[in-house]
Sequence to fold (193 residues):
Amino acid sequence: MTHLTTTGHPQTRREIKALSLPALIRLVTEIDDNGPISHQKGSLQSTFDDLRAPQLRYAIDRAREFGLVYGDEDERVRYRLTGSGEELAEVYDTAARWARTHQFPSAACDFTTRVQRTLHLLGHAPALAGATARLGESIGTAVPGGAVLGREALVALEDPQRELAAWLTAHAHVLHEAALHSSYAADEMEPAA
Fold:
């Protein structure tokens, strides 16, 4: 668990919180899974018909601010992922795979919740850094949110943490300023999963 300490800094936790917006996770993964969103009238809202317009607008604004999506109003394509958006989609996929494998936060939950809760967990890395060593013969250790993770899950958590830390390091110039603005407003725009 050597890498877990790199994501526990307060600034990094704000950045992780900014990347954990459910609508942002949905936007990035939708474009990653299904390709660019068309410029045709109504295509954006029909793709995300379960999101309210302010949530969707906020996610798009954050995605642009973080350099995750781009598009030209004159093009056929309204939104497509940038290279950093594609890399973040990989981070989200890795977090979701870890969560599914270790049934975190529960056996039955959706992709967005898995990603959001795993990123939240990674933001509390200092509390987890020594957890594996302290486990001894116990079944597991309690983590933020009330779940109990065993040694295997804690060791495997290093994979999503490593990817997240690499992404945060590579994109620190964008996130530092943007996360300060978005993390406070995020509480008002997005319910916790």
Residues 1-5 have pLDDT under 50 and may be disordered. The beta strands are 37-38, 69-70, 77-81, 141-142, 148-149. The longest helix spans residues 83-101. The first strand starts at residue 37 and ends at 38.
